[in-house]
Amino acid sequence: MTCEPTSALHDRRSLFDVRRVSDPPRLALGELIGSLSFALDMTEGQPPGHSVRCCWIGTRIGRALGMSSQAYDDLYYALLLKDLGCSSNAARICALYLTDDLRFKHDFKVLDDSLMSVLRFVITRTGAGAGLSERLRATVNALRQGSKISRELFETRCHRGADIAARMRFPAGVQDAIRNLDEHWNGRGQPCRISGNEIPRIANIALLAQVVDVFHTEGGPDAAMAEATRRAGSWFDPQLVATLWKVSRNPGFWQALRDPELETRVFALDPRRDGTPVDEDYLDDIAEAFADVVDAKSPFTADHSKRVMFYADMIAEELGLESDHRRWLRRAALLHDVGKLAVSNQILDKSDKPDAEEWQVIRSHPTHSRAILERIAAFRDIAPVAGAHHERLDGAGYPLGLDAASLCLEVRILTVADVFDALSAARPYRAALPLDTVHEIMGRNARSAFDPLCLEALKTGLSRLGTAVAQSAA
Q: Which pLDDT tens digit goes with each residue over 63-112?
């Protein structure tokens, strides 16, 4: 899957051409969503497989309750997608609490809602690594405005997640479950403080499954059941906790959570497994939706993936790539930064340039992108492209230091598109650069970092676009 570093397009071997020999199999929706849920686990600071384990726990409860077919379908997908909006409050958490959003979210999930627990949490977690006066100011602000801040954070997360689920074509039952995930039985949840039967049952099951998995991971079955029981009547419908006790007495219930094959078992529960497989249009929608999850993580990356997709497609069009090839490349562009969900916003939004340790974390994100996409049959063939978008022709890129002989056409296109957008957009440590400056910088690095043919295609495409815009405004 390599290409030769020559000057003519037809000599640049394409990864897509290799892929066309054996197209990846079509797959069921549950497998696709379940595999992508590992990306959501990262940005919630949870161990890999959290959403899949929650799906196992929650569907066991749903089966025991004798839920209708439609309700069970909605429960299954809601459990896998419960954290769809999780990236949208990451930057806000970092700004308010001056802390690592990944660790903050991880620790928050083991917190109850008692006053002293919240007080201790805010005091000990706010401003880790900041100066004393800065830490005190942030702590006081968090305590004084705690209720308002909490509501805003949950509202952003829950509504954003529900909106993305709608764009991914999931029905109202799934959307409502995601929107109301953090509501509590006693009315003290967030963001709307609804209570009792006002809360969609699927949402309360999903929250219960989340708590069970978090405490089971931390302390085993006894810890999980003790916490679920303690929160019965406050966080959870007591009937759901009673049903959990019933299903948990089956030895296989807990064993499954440690089973290396749990992912396969959960995907086999997919209610649409024998139905219509995911088609090409749906794959486009899902890729775009997850690009929004990635881009929502930082205000400095808002719409970055969509712009990279646009520039990559522009280059591909100028190079004469066929429509199916361009469609495939657009998905790679949309998902190239999915690994950034594993990077704290303390690093992504830092106003100064990253230090050596932070830079090492940043350099790991293409590896995470590749690992996530390799899990997914429908996106496995774009994983090498996404994982190499920071490599250079001279071998000085990252994470693997690949050189021109190992960089196929699609990687070369994506690299040019990605760097062009990075330079022409604002970053925490600098303003957006003028177009002429961007072209000058990238031109200096032609043949060392960037493929000259791709650079020229980008300039030609931008020129055509500028002409079209001028003509339409005349």
A: 999 999 999 999 999 999 999 987 766 655 656 555 666 666 666 676 66
Residue 341 scores a pLDDT above 50: yes
Q: Residue 160 above 60 pLDDT?
A: yes
Confidence class for position 11, pLDDT limits 50, 70, 90: low
The domain ranges of the chain are 9-24+277-473, 29-88+151-268
Mean pLDDT, range 198-210, rounded to an integer: 97
pLDDT digits (tens, 9 = 90+) for 421-431: 999 987 777 78
Distances (CA, A) of 292 to 39, 252, 296, 341, 452: 13, 37, 6, 11, 30
Spatial separation of the C-alpha atoms in residues 9 and 453, rounded to whole Å: 8
pLDDT score recorded for residue 3? 40
Q: Give the integer Cα–Cα distance in Å for 309 and 64.
A: 45
Q: Give catalytic residues, as residue numbers.
A: 340
Specify the length of the chain in residues.
474
Q: Is 353 helix (H, G, I), strand (E, B) or coil?
A: coil
SS3 content of the chain, % helix, strand, coil (to 5): 65, 0, 30
Specify the DSSP element, H or E, that contains 190.
none
Please say whether the beta carbons of 430 and 450 come within 8 A: no
Contacts of 31 (CB under 8 A, 6+ apart): 267, 270, 376, 377
- pLDDT tens for 286-296 read 999 999 999 98
- Same fold? 9-24+277-473, 29-88+151-268: yes
pTM recorded for the entire structure: 0.84
Q: Which residues of 351-364 are buried (b: 16+ CB within 10 A; e: fewer)?
A: eeebeeebeeebeb
Among candidates 49, 70, 78, 48, which has minimal Cα distance to 205? Answer: 78
Domain 9-24+277-473: give its CATH superfamily.
Answer: Hypothetical protein af1432 (1.10.3210.10)
Question: Which among 194, 188, 185 is positioned nearest to 240, based on CA atoms?
Answer: 185
pLDDT band at 5 (very low <50, low <70, confident <90, very high): very low
- For 377-404, give one letter per residue: b (16+ CB within 10 A) or e: bbbbbbbbbbbbbbbbbeeebbbeebbb
Which CATH number, 1.10.287.130, 1.10.3210.10, 3.10.129.10, 1.10.10.10, labels domain 29-88+151-268? 1.10.3210.10
